[in-house]
Amino acid sequence: MLTAPAGLMIYVATRPVDFRKGADGLALLAKETLGHDPMKGVVVFRAKRADRVKIVVWDGSGLVMYRKRLDGGRFMSSHRGRRHAGECHAAVRASGRH
Q: For the whole model, what pTM was predicted?
């Protein structure tokens, strides 16, 4: 189990990304396109098929990328059909408050 520090910002990309990208490519995408520094929080990306996510986080000594693939089903997005000003938005605080 991973324990996140209080106040940690978790950002969720609202559009799918190219899943051939590794940790460095996704971090660069977060910084240049989304305007978020991945060294100051966590960024979650999803694949086009929505059965996979990649999570990029700075652990203090380097970038870490976690991958999750569902054997059945899809990751759901509560933002389906809505327009957003940016590609990325603050979704959750580690404290559990929304």
A: 0.70
